[in-house]
Amino acid sequence: MTIRMIAKLAAGTALASLAAGHAIAQDNSVEVLHWWTAGGEAAALNVLKENLEAQGITWNDMPVAGGAGGNAMTALRARVTAGDSPTAVQMLGFDIRDWAELGVVGNLNDLAEEEGWEAVIPAALQDFSRYDGQWIAAPVNVHSTNWLWINGDAFQAYGGGEPQSLDELYAMLDAFEEQGITPLAHGGQAWQDTTMWENVVLAVGGIDFYRDAIIDANADALSSDTMREVFDHMTRLAGYFDPNFSGRDWNLASAMVIEGDAGAQQMGDWAKGEFLRADLTPGEDFMCMRFPGTQGNVLFNSDQFVMFEVGEGARDAQLAMASAVMDPAFQVAFNTVKGSVPARTDIDDTEFDACGKQGMAELAEAAANDTLAGSLAHGHAQPAAVQEAFFDVVTQHLNGQISTDEALERLPQAIAAAQ
Amino acid sequence: MSAASPTVSPASARIARFVIYGLLILLAIVYLLPFFVMLITSLKPLAEIRSGNMLALPQNPSLDAWGKAWGSACIGVTCAGIKGYFWNSIQLVVPAVTISTILGALNGYVLTKWRFPGHKLVFGLMLFACFIPFQAVLIPMARVLGMLGLSNSTAGLVLVHVVYGLGFTTLFFRNYYEAFPDELIRAAQMDGAGFFQIFWRILLPSSGPIIVVTVIYQFTNIWNDFLFGVSFASGERAPMTVALNNLVSSSTGVKEYNVDMAAAVYAALPTLFVYVVAGRYFVRGLMAGAVKG
Amino acid sequence: MTLTVEPSTPVRRHASLADRARAFLPKIVLAPSFALILFFVYGFILWTLYLSFTNSRILPIYELVGFDSYVRLWSQPNWHMAIKNLAIFGSLYIFFCIALGLLLAILLDQRIRGEGVLRPIFLYPMALSFIVTGTAWKWFLNPGLGLERAMHQLGWTSFKFDWLISTDMAIYTVVIAGVWQASGFVMAMFLAGLRGIDGEIIKAAQIDGASTFSIYRRIIIPLLRPAFLSAVIVLSHMAIKSYDLVIALTGGGPGNATELPSTFMYSYTFTRSQMAVGSASAVMMLMGVAAIMIPYLYSELREREK
Questions:
Q1: Neighbouring chains of A at 3+ CB pairs within 8 Å?
Q2: Which CATH number is A144-300+372-418's, of 3.30.230.80, 3.40.190.10, 3.30.565.10, 3.40.50.300?
Q3: Lower CB count within 10 Å: N or C terminus of chain B?
Q4: How high is the ipTM of this complex?
Q5: Using CA atoms, how far apart are residues C21 and C19, in angstroms rounded to an integer?
Q6: Most A CBs within 10 Å, among C165, C166, C244, C275, to test the A interface
């Protein structure tokens, strides 16, 4: 028994080192680390897989869910430290830069030039897809976080127009309250709290204040009167939550809106996928609109496949995958399901629903008017350490652990300590 | 021992028995609740889960969710359920438990019957090793696995579990063999028995209870491990817990509670089986040594 | 390899070589395990210690910068919260596990019919990880979905159980789930201890007219001292390492109300890209463990000597 086990282990060892030794040979497979593990996202990713398999490339799936990608990043650290990077990794914003800085990512320049990526990817995305001018990642989509989702029936019953300001939003939420439903569905997790908070920052202070306070983390802006107003609005908005919001997953909050138990939800455009899967029609059964007070501005985040440095033998498969990610057909297939809009700007919007069309048009507009900014809650405004410092203060304030005064005092401190 | 004392009057004894049984049954119900909820939820259709009482029995019990969790639920881009990962875990647990138990037995044997100067320090260091927070070793461990060519493999994960299980297995066997009479060893030595012969012929045959304790402990820990699994064997070699997490904590789509719960019950079955079947020997094994220190 | 050993080598020397080899054999058997532990545990502890004096962020950097990360660590409100929570969680967890474990063991030790059925019921939670039971627990404790709602549906509308969502009380739900998981294990340890007690002592006390209560208080419980000690050690080790439990139930929230050192360390090392601060917290945790364990090990191993 013993000896057999030891022999087995030894054989495993030998096999593994054999495999490692063979990495130099032609390797027609890609290993993809991602956290799109279920539902429509996984189905959409399957489009990519099938595309590659048609070219004779094997797809080794490495899904790691949980912790909003946190577990996936742990797994990635282990793999990179082991000198055994996966081919491609789903990643957001500043994480991409951090990894690029370590010099462990690949180079897609030739492919990008050949396919003319520079012309079709918005500059704001290229800030993340390129490091020092070198293409390292293929962007899949552009999400936007400043959306409000409203139950169609509740909205009809309210009878007013789309709220254009925070005051009009409160009027609508009051009406929902009178209808006897939860006015605002919310999931009490740090990233969701901060998604709402960044919307309010944008609504109260406008895009310049957003850039000053969040992108530049200017200490004066962070403790300014405008910021006080932001926190006061957060307190007021929290009054419209149901008592059980703590720890709720965002899709369960969406479900409350879908089923009519709640009137509205502030959430990024990935929420649309939930509404569509419940067979609701945008504009009738549910409304999608920019978060009141943020019209004309777009807070974005973009999922990208970062290509890691792999052996020469695996390069061809990696480039084929990068090319397949940028394939317009995949970008349409994936984004119609995911609720996001394509990363490419040269894609026709006919396949998209009303909300998707609106999103695409507004993204182009915002890019042209320079009112496009990275989302803090989704890693496109600050590196992880600073981002989490924002999370701490915002979520503790929203949960009543600290007062507005304390929040204003702590925000610049926490951010300075994390930088 | 037992405390049913003969001096108490029959009436109050009956009341005492009543209270004891009542308390035990009440506590048993409380302890069973979480698992009961998992089980009945896995048998309900989704609509009933959403609208009904979580404690209510299913109106039309169905095994659909069980079939789906085992064979067709989507985890990432492959929709083949958790069965593959179940076998991954088995392939991981069997060698890891076997190796760490054997090494622990040998270590315990050396540390009690073949003492050398400094044996206490060695044991103390091995015991303290049980307390290292696993989160702190992930990065250097990944490095070492990479250098050994074991990155992202079951063999690597076996190594990790053996290393971090050694402290516990050594502790169990050391405490057990401590109580084993030295005279028997000496007598065997007189008869010319060597190191391994004594271990094999004299200690091992009477090690049943402690082997049960060690195997249960290691089996449970390794089967339930998530942190090492997700760090060192994500992907196709992923153990059960990693797959379960992928299934349960996916953030989009309708949450299929019944499938999640069925998958969770599958993940729990092997350890439950071991506890229920070997539970009696577990207490016996603890009696025989492990509680002493 | 060539055979250079002369056939005329004295037999005595052979024997002494073999003897020496035999004398070394136990050490040779122990050596691999010890080497593994030295390297993978103590080597890695030293590595972590080193890292805590660097400015490592996303991956290790080996340039020393002094005590900076310790200063950062102790300036984090999250860390203070984590320590406070560990104190609350750890003491309540250990206390209730032992109290409940002892109660269960004593009850089960009363010549109970059906002990074989009851014992695994109390023991089974230990077999399940919170990756498995987390969803059920979270559901159960959530006032809108679980126990509170179920009680309301059954007509008990004044029933209130909303600790999970309260920043002040959430840490106690973590204690509840933790006690549920580990108290059966403690029960098994005490049961083993009770079964090991010599019945004659009890009989003698009964003949002296001692009541059942005083027999337990004066004789049995003191005799269980080793089981108490083992239980405290096992439980404190589980309390310090508790990670899955918090992640599954609350994810550290609401706010940071259920942050523990283990979750702090993980998030700073892996999701917040402040690896040096994470390492510093790991070092602090190890120092805490050492402060408990070293005196215990010292006294325990000395005692054995006698």
A1: B, C
A2: 3.40.190.10
A3: N
A4: 0.86
A5: 5
A6: C165
